[in-house]
Design goal:
mainly alpha, Cytochrome Bc1 Complex, Chain D, domain 2, two-stranded antiparallel ribbon, 22 helices, 2 strands, membrane, electron transport, Cyt_c_III_dom
Length: 453
Amino acid sequence: MISWRKHYKTGLIAICLLLSTSASIYAQGDAKNGEKLFKANCTACHALDKQLVGPALGGIVDKVKKEQNLDTDWLHKWIKDNKALRASGDKYANEIFEKFNKTEMLAFPNLTDKDIDDILEYTTNPPAPEPAATAATGTDTNSVAALEMAQKQSMNSKVILISLFAIGGLLLWLLLKLRQLVKLQQTEELAGLNATRATSFADLYRKYSYIGKGVLVILGIFAAYGIWNWMMWIGVYKGYKPEQPIYFSHKIHAGENKIDCQLCHSSAKYGKVSEVPSMNVCMNCHRNISEYKGKYMEPGKDKAFYDGEIQKVYSATGWDPASQQYTGKTHPVEWTRIHNMPDFVYFNHAQHVVAGEQAIITSFNKKNPEAKIDVVCKACHGQVDTMNVVQMANDFTMGWCIECHRTTEVDMTNGYNKEYFKNLHEKLKKQYGSGTKITVDAIGGLECGKCHY
């Protein structure tokens, strides 16, 4: 009896240890916190449901346990410092390293054991996605109401139009009847007077030729002004927004995801021209982003549309997301240019983006307090971070540039300007007073040779 009780107690202890071990592997973390940590640290190389740079991590705890009989302690060591784990001679760690083309995973010594447990819980039991916002239902209701309103307005317009035609017909009939009455009541004296009146445009012109010539002169002046004004706006395409071969929403990239303009348009800071980014720049991110998971949806667009545009990027670069390799079969993208400076005009982006950055931002915000900007690019190109399709936001005429040079104050606190224009600054203070503001035109901003050479 004593021996049976002893074995019974031992069995209970063993079962409790087994349960506690299982509990340490599963459901010991916070899946919601793990989701945040996973997105912040892991999504550059991993997804739950498919291989990216590294393997799919959905159910990784069970997989490692079943295939290698390894527990979460091994995963903790791998995540914190996989290089040290491989250096210790761990067989499975080195197998993974070889399998994924010796691509070294980043070490995460900053993650606590609790953080890693939360991440593993997320890979084991990811929380259900939040229910979609009910805005779509509201939109549908609004659309139906708008359609009904439009139909009512259309019917009202038809009734008004028919009524106007009826009134017009009635008025015409009355005029004809009045004309008949006038003819019946005409006297011989009135008939003789009518015979002396002009009955054609030629008679009228001969009788009042001096008035006619004056009218023609005035019309000629208006016509000349109209032609001149039309010619002055040749080449001005404010509002121009062509369709591109691959749909690219600046609102999603620059607005929703806060990507800096110069991350893609890097030459704007260092060169004359702000180039169209190469597709390799797109692949820096989209190598690991194969589908759209953002909350923002442009009206008329859905997730399938955005996913299709990402596939166009892959086709252009020859990227195979399944094998995570380039095939070498590329298809150049023929982008439609929006901003195109004439050949006879010199414009240097670096000069404005670097030397003139603070001065331009300050000047723009003074003139447009309701639309303040935080990036110098917006002064010329508009609020690009709100545009789904980029458009030409300003006239970009010579007068538009000159007006900017006349009103933009030079930043004299800039170390370069302070030294280079020191003598000019002193001269202007003596001439106009100590409170003189130096604008761009004062340092040669209106010289013809600055822009035309």
